[in-house]
Every structure is written in structure tokens, then in C-alpha cells.
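Annotators were shown the component list below and the corresponding predicted structure, then asked to write short factual statements about the assembly.
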Amino acid sequence: MESRSFNTTPLLLAFGLVAFGLAGLSIADMFVPRPYDGVVPDDVPGQLVVREVIPGSGADQAGIEPGDEIKGIAREAVSSPARAARVLNRYRAGQEVVYLVKKSSGEIIFPEVRLGLRRIGDGAYLYSSTLGFAFFLVGLFVLVRQPTMRVSQIFFLLCGLFLLFLVCRMRPAAYSSVDALVLGIGTIAFLLLPAAFLHFYLLFPRPAWLNAAAESPRWRPIARLWRVGWPMIYVIPPLVFWISYRVGEARETRPELTHGAPAANWWLLALFMLLGLMALLANSRRLNSARERRGMAMVMIGSFFGLAPFVIASLALDSDQHSGRFFFLGVMPLALVPLTFAYAIVRFQLLDIRVILRRSLLYTVTTALVTGLYAGGIATFNAFFRNSTLVKSGYFPIILALAIVLLFDPLRRRVQEVIDRYFFAGRSRLQRTMVELGEAMTAQMDLQAVVEELVEKLPQLLDLRFAALYLLRGYRLERVAGPDRLPATLPVLPELERHLQRRGMLTRLDQLGALPLRSIEVANLADELTAEGAELIGNLTSRRRHIGMVVLSGKQGQIALEREELELLERLLHQASLALETSMLLDERTQKAELEREIAIAATIQSQLLPAQLLFADGWEVAAECRPARIVVGDFFAQLPTDDAEQSAVIFGDVSGKSVAGALMMMAAHEALYALAMTRPQPAELFALTNRRLYELGKRSFVALGYFAASGDGCNLRYLVAGQPPPLLRRREGTVSELPLPDHRIPIGAMPIGSYRELEQPIEPGDLVLGYSDGVIDARSPDGDFFGYDRLCEVMAESPADANILVNNVMQAVRDFTRGGLQYDDLTLVAVGRRLAETARGQVV
Amino acid sequence: MNRVVLLVVVLLILAAGGGATAVWWWLRPPEPEWTSASPRAIRKLETGLADLAKMYAVDAVRSFEEALELDPSFAMPKLHLALLYPSRSERMRMVNALREVELEALTPRERFLLSYELARFDGREGDASQALETFRERDPEDPYGIRVQCRVYWEAQKWDAAEECYHHLLALHPNWVEAHNNLGYIAMGRGRFTEAEERFQTYRYLAPDQANPRHSLAMLLTVLGRYEEAQAEIDEMVTIKADFCDAYTQKIELGMMSGQLELARGGLEQLRSIEACSYLQDHGAMCSLEAWVLYLDGELEAARQHLTGSCLERLDGFDLLAHRLAVMNGDAEQVAEMEQKLRHYLDKVVAAERPIHAQFLESLLAHMRGIQALAAGDYRAASEALTQADQGLGYWGGERANIKLFNQLNLLRTLELGGRAEQAAAVRRSIDAVNPRLIEAFPLPDVIMPSSAALGP
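Structure shown to annotators:
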């Protein structure tokens, strides 16, 4: 393949636009009313020779005949159709003008010709024009479908030249001022036609001969020559044209022109055609795909039987007999060329183009054709038996109608079977396989199996290069299957998701429209995936959740995925989404069950950390209760040794964070406190050490902590508060007040350095001190009201001077207040107080 | 696809720009061809040029004079009047007026025509050629430049070059009738009668209101023996222009060639009665025609008498009929004198490097020798001389074509008298091929036979 420095498709499209415009001009010009004598001029340079005379026209009535030379019109010398047009355009239809005509016998006559209106193209021209536009449309279709393939570009050029030749060159010349332009363009098109023809067949469908030649030492120079010198094939036909004229001048004769070109150019067309067909044969033998070989055979047959009569009729008959009578016979089979191309593309996906025909449309056309055939048959039958008694019989129409009813449907079905077999077999097979794949996936419960079905079988089925699956994991999409060269994760881009939901499940990356302009992330993602060969991206989603995304490459070769394939794929992806969701739900449920079991174990361990019985100082009573909001708990209380070997302390904590994280922090805090307390530090030091330890964990989680211990004389309560609400003191007589607090009471683990200060509060017999976590006052009623500080104080005031009863009353009050509603936070209560009389030393409620 | 849309937009803009330029170019006012402040004077000039193209010299002079009255500074009418006026003094007056013209104010074409013709008036042929060459290089497609070039070839009798030049002129201006006419003459001179007729027919078709193309055609048709068609053309000529002298001269020739001497006499009468044709008397053409009519009518002595004196002088001292009659009369002195004058003229033509004309004159000399040999009964010498004359003669125009045919008739008679029937038959076929009615309609008087070598009874 020759190297290309720039994309020629826009230029070709511009050429197509101009060619189409010229063809349109050529046809439109025929409808402009102009005076016309009925002469069809021949292609003789420098002379106005009559090729044909329209029967009944002014020229015909004046005795002008084919072969005559018109030398003057309306007292002006004319030597070309263009000059004749200029003269005639000064007159109107109906006027009579004097001609100077040299008869083929040599006689000079001066006939008076009555001008009429110019003629419109006849049936032959209508056919030529239709054929030209058919060529053009097939070429345009191929170029649009494969704009970057060199061979499709050359094919478009070839079809454009055919359009110009068939519409402009075949135009019935009638002196129009446009004639010179369009006929000249048509001649130029014909001169370039053989070159484009040969060029196309040398490269079609792939330049296999060129590749083979490049590998062979013997033929390598040919391959090199082609790579450099291919433009020369476009120079040869005009050169031959020029040489023909020069030779003619040297011999003082004008070359005989057949449809605007000398015989040498027609011979060249025949030669190039032969070479082209040989190249086609050579290329087709080197194709690996049987499908492509069949398509090539079809094209070869169409090209041969379409073009050979065209050349023979023009070269052997018209050129030899100096007439254009046989040309139409040559043009007629030319229709085989676009027809076979179109058929080969539809049937065998030549040039990697797949066409999805609409079944309904095809069946409608089939039915219309069959109906037409029947109508024609009946008309023929009627005509044939017109005079027979059979037609006159009253039963004839009934028998005929019955015959139609009986025969119509079987014949239609037969035709449709053929259509199904030739055009829809592959598609039906694909559809069936896709359905089976969808069902297989839906039946799968194993997520990995669904993934494999989707990612491995889909490329095989649709001839894709690869497929990749990304599943939503947290806040990103993780690749669970697909080529390693694709990104391992993709970001979740709401903009892209919304776009995909709007546009459908599957979208081409290059059809994201203006989305990349709005979102740089989408643009980057599209670029990244495109760079790795991806062409399609699809959203996997169900009604309930977003599951993930699928990324697909294009097809092997250059065939693009057709709309119907995309629709099938979308249906399959929808089924895959359901299957994946089911698998994922199952997976998640299993994981959840495992997690719940783990959490239950953790809760058991946690519950075992809480002491079954608390000890405090002599003459003191203690009660504590911890009620978790979830299975695992973030609050705790514990008994610790104090700096006084005779005493025990009670601590209670509230870990920031909930669930498993909170539980782990609680465990860490508990163990740190316990371990550090073993060295019997001062309470403030204990808090400071614990603070440092927990801060070093680096989880940015902290613990609100309270510390109660009795003084050595047993009359005071030593206490520390770090982040916990201020403990409440209930005097024996029922008054409730807050214990004084230090200036700073930062929670443990919140900051690298904590400043904690131990305080003492004299406690009288019968007094109670209640420590509590914020979950108590933050407990909410179903109406959304907080339990609050005041209500807590009220419950304390109304409770008797008994730690256990106080804890129980507060817990009950909270339960009553929340009325069984959702508990948002763990509740922890620790009550200590001096006994009025000797009771048990401590109790956990 | 955006690039495509851009390309299409650019193409559309270019197309619109090109279209606007084309419309402007098409609608722009044409540059004036002739330099004059008076549009009426220009129209008169164009009328004169059209008259000139029709060979209506008198009408053309009138139109040019009117143009000059309308714009006394108009150079082109002066130029044409300087070429057309019959009087030398009037011509020189115009030439002097032309010398006063400011060349800078003229168009390049006018400058060329003026400088070219002035150079020719002054005899500066080299300057004239240089002016022509310069102008042709500057504007090779200008029809007036080509026309002057063609006339140079024509006058120099360079027929090949002239033919090519006129073809070139016609390729650019297919309605230029002078080219058709001259190409017709060239074709006729070379015996390509069909082509000549085609040219003259085209000329007649393009200028149906002109008498000249019909004259060219009538002349050809007369030579070809298509006398009825020639007569019709002559009648048309007279209808178009009653004082068109060539119509009557052609009528006389037709009468002589076809043996209708009454027709010829009638033509002579008409010619004598038209004032505009008096110039024919001055040129001697009239007396020649009158002598031929007398000769063909068998009045040999009257014809001989007619061709003596001032008539012969007007014919530059020699004439084929005068020579023939002198031979028949045995007037060796006059015969020698005429041959001497013809040789002298031939020397001048050879010196002027006009080989084709020289060939024609040599052929006339050969004819004269042949006639003398025939009169002397030396048929072999006569046939050799007449054959030589035939080979050198062509059909250049009616007069020379008639001379060639006349020479062939003499050759035929010589061969018959010499008993060379085979060669005579060949000559007869040759004559019949051109004019199958000539031998029958133009019986050569036997007066040149030895038995009747003397004019007297």
C-alpha cells in the first residue's frame, strides 16, 4: 500500500460533491426550454457533423440527415456544437432559420429549419443516468463506511468517474451551452476511468499481490516500482489521448472519436480491464477467508460480464461502424457491476462492510415483486387466450382467483426462504447464540462464571478483539476480567453514567458527543480506553443498583458493529446485569453472614472484657451498665488498679466511631488502659500515657474517658474526665449537681499531648456520683426529642440513694423515653457512692 | 466531518467569488476598437469596413468620407481612403493627413495599421514587415493583424502560407468572409473545385446581401460548365447591385464560354451603359472582352483591328488573342514585339521574386510559341509548347482558368491534327473533367489551321 501523508477522504468527498453537482446540472439543463433543431451532433473536433436527427424535428423536416455537416446556422459559420448553441439561443422556438449544410454526398444545401424546443433525454439516457447514480451511491456508501481505507477511496473515485461518464458523457448533446462543459467533463472522466479501474482492482480487497511481490526477491522491484510510480497509471490515458491527436495531426487526419474518446483510449480501457481482472484473480487466490473469496468471485463475474459488453459494443461495433447505435447494448449490462458489488457487500461483507437489511422491507419488496409477476402472468394469460371460450366463460375469473390464492403464498414463501438463506442466515445464527448465552449467564449463580461467560464468549461470538468487565467496588470500578493493558480501575463518573443511561446501555467511545467537552474526566477516560483499542463502553445496571461497566473493542478487521448487533449486545448486557446482580447479591449475602458471625464473636469477646463484678473502696458502692446500640459496642467500663494498692478505680469510655471500627478502638483503649494501669501510675499520668499510645495508632479516633476512684481516707472521690460529660452528684437529700471539671478535658487520642488533671470531691454517705456517656442524653424519642440533661437530673433526683437502683432507673427512663425506637449510640452508666450501711461492694447491672 | 464541512464552505466561497468575477468580466464594457470621440463616426467606419468586405469600394469610400466629416481627426477613415481613392493626389492628401496623426492616442491595432500602411506608401517594405511582425507577436490573435499577414502572403503568392493563415483567421473568426473568398480562390487555383465551391457557397451564405460572393461562385460555375447556375448567380448579383461591374464581365465570359454570344453582347452593352464601370475601359479589360466576342463570332479582322492601338496599350502591349490574330495574319513583327514585351515583363516579375506569377508568364510565352508552331504546321513542337504551357497554368480565378482551358483546347486540336488520338483523348478527358460542356459549347474557330492561316479572303 502506498504511503499517505494526509487524509484524502475530505478531498474525495469534495470531488464527489462536484461530480454530483455536474451530473445534476447536466440533467437539470435538459429541462431548460431552448430552441432546438433536432440534431444530435457527433464528436468531431472542429466540425459540426450530424450523428442523429430526431424524427419529426425541424432538421428532419428540412432534410438534414446523419452524416451531414452543418456549416452555418442563421447566416453564421459554425464549427462546433457550442458555437451552434450560441447562435440558436438568439432565436425562439417556432422561428425558421437558414442552414448551410454540406451533405455527405458533397452537395451544398441551404435548408430552412423550423426550430422547436429541445428534447429531454430518452429512455437510454434515463437508464445511463440511473446507473451512474447507482454507481455513485454504492461508492459513497463504501466510502462513508470505510473512510480511511485506501481501496474504498479508490472505489469512490471510480464510481464518481462512472457517474460523470454515464451522466455527462452520455448526455444527448443538443447545442446547450452546458454541453461543452459536461461533455468535456465526461470525456475527462472517461480518460481517467481506466486508470481508476486498474488502480482499484490492483488493491481490492487488499493488495495481496503487492505484499507477495514485496516478499519475493524476483518481484520486489515491481512492488517498489508500484509504490513510487502508481500515479503514472493516471497519466497514461490522457497521454494516449494526446498522442492520438498528435498522430492525427501529423497524418493530417482527425482521430475517429467514439463517445468523445479515440479508439486508442478504448483499447487502453480494454487492456486495463484485463490487467485489473488478472490482479483481482491474483488477489483473490491469496485470501484466507472463504467468505471473502466468494465475494471476490461475485465481483469478478459482475465486472467481467458488466464491462466486457461495454467495451466490445463501444470498441468493436460503434467505433467500427461509426455510430452510437450499439452503445446502449453495452451500457445495459454495466448495471451488473454496482449490483454485484452491492450484493457482495451485503452477502459477504466485502471491504469489511456489513449491511443489515431490514427484513420487513425486503419482504415487502418481495411481495410486491411476486404480485407484479402474478399480475403480468395473468395479463399474458388473458392476452393469450383472448379469443378463446375459456376467457369468456363465467368460471374463468373464479378459477383464476383460486389459482392466485393457491399459488401466491407458496411462491412467496419460496422466495422468502431464499432471502432468509442468503441474507439472514448469519444473523439468525447470531441472534440464537446470543439468546443462549444470555440464558446461560442468567442460570449461573457464581459471579466468576458469569464474568467468564461474558468476557470470554462475547468476543468469540461477535468477532471482537477483546471484552473487559469492571465491577463497582466501593467508589471505583475494578477490572475483574479483560486484557491487562486496560486500566485496573476506572473512576465512577456520574456524568458518564447519566449519559449512558440516556443514550442506551452501550455507546461508542467516539460518539460520546459533547460529553468530553463538559467533563475532562470523561475525556481522559475515553482517550485512555481508545488508546488501548476499546471502541465501546456500556453501563451494567439494574433497577436497584449500578453494577459496573463493560468495555469492548471493535471487531476483527475493519467491520463496524451494526445497529442490530448493538441491539443484541445491549439485550445480552441487560441479561448479564441481572445475572451479575444476582451473583453479587448472593456473594454479598454470604459475606454479610460471615461478617455477622465475626461481629457476634467480637461482641462476645467485648462482653467478656466488661467485668462481671466491680470492686471499689470500702464503704462505697458501685454499679455500671453498658447497653450497645449495635452488636459490637464502642462504650465500655472497666476496673483498674490505682496508684493506691488498696484501692480500685472504675473507668468508663466512649469511643468515637461506631460498629467494627469503634469496637476495635474500644478494645485498643481498654487494653492500653489496663496495661498501663498495671504500673500503677497517677490517674493523670495514666490518661497522658494512654493518650499518647492511642494517638500513635494514627487512626484519628479518640476515646472519651471517665475515671472514678476513692481517696485513701475513703471520704473523697478522685475523678478525671477526658471528653466525657461532667459527672452528676446526687446528694443524699436528692439534690443533683455537676461535679466541678478541669479547664481542659480533651478526649484521649485526639491530640498528641493531653493535659489531664485529677480532681477530688468530698462524698458524704448516701451521696451518689453518676458518670455517663453522651449516648444517654442524646437518646431520642420517636418524635425526635433528646432525652437530655434535665430529664437525667430529674431521674437522678427521684431515685433512691442506691447506685444499682440509680443505674436501673436511668436505663429504664431512657427505654421509656425512646419507646423501643432505634438506639443511635451506646449507653454507658457508672454510678458510685458512699453507703449508708454495709452492702455489697459493687455490682454490674 | 467538520473538516469536510469547512472544505465545502471554502469551495462554495471560492465558487461564489469565481462566479462574481465571471459576471463582472462578462458585463464589463468592451474596450473601444477604434479611436474616435464620435460614436456615429465609428458606426460609419464600421459600415465602410463592411462595404469593403463586400468589395463595394465606391460605397466604402462614401462611408469613410462620412466618418471623416463626423470626426475630422479620426485616423482610420483616412487610412482606408488613402488606400481606396482612385486619384493619386487624393491618396497622397490622405497620406499626408495620416502623418499628422498622434500615434499615442490610438489603440495598438490602429497604431499598427497606420505605421504599416505608411511604411508601404513610403516604400519602406522592411519597416512594414517589422511593424507587422511586432504587432503579431504582441497580439497574435488580432484578426486585423492576421488579415494583414494573410494579405502579405496572398500578394506574394505564397499560397500555402496564405491558406494556412486564412484557416487560422477563420478558426478565430469563422464569419470573416474575405478569408472564405480567398480560400475559395486558392482551392480553385489548385483544381480543388469542390472545396472552392464550398468556400464560395459559405461566403454567399454568410453574406446573402452581397454581390461579390455570387460573382466568385458564378466565375467558378462558369469554369465548371454549370452555366445555368452561373446565370442564376449573375442575375442575383444584378438584383443585389445593379452597377456591380463584375456581374456583367462575368455575364460576358459566361456567354463566350457557353457559346451564347448574344448573352455576351448583351453584357457588353450593359457594361458600356454603366458609369461606375467606366474604369474597365481604362484598364483595357473592356476592349479585350469586345475583341473576344468579335473573334468568337468569326469576325477575325474586326477583332484584330479592335486589339490594336490604344486597346493593346491598355493591355500592357500583349494579349493572347492579339497574338493569335497576329500569328494568323502573319504579322511576325507584331508577334515578336508582343513576345518581347511579355519577356520584359517576365524579367521584372522574376526580379520581384514572384515565382508563381513568373511561371504564369512563362506559360503564356509557351502558349504563344505553341500557337506559332501550330500555325506553321509543326504539330509536334506545338503540342510540346502547349503541354508546357498547360503544366504551368492553373485555375487561379476566372481569367486564368479560362486561359488554361483555352490552352487545353488548342492542345487538343493540335494533337488531333497531329494524329495523336490517344493523347488527344487524354486531354479531352482532362477538359471534360473540369467542364464537360466546354468542347461542345466553345468550338475553337478553325482559323488557325494552315489552310486558313491568313486573315484575308
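Statements collected:
1. The mean pLDDT of chain A is 80.
2. The CA atoms of residues 121 and 172 of chain A lie 6 Å apart.
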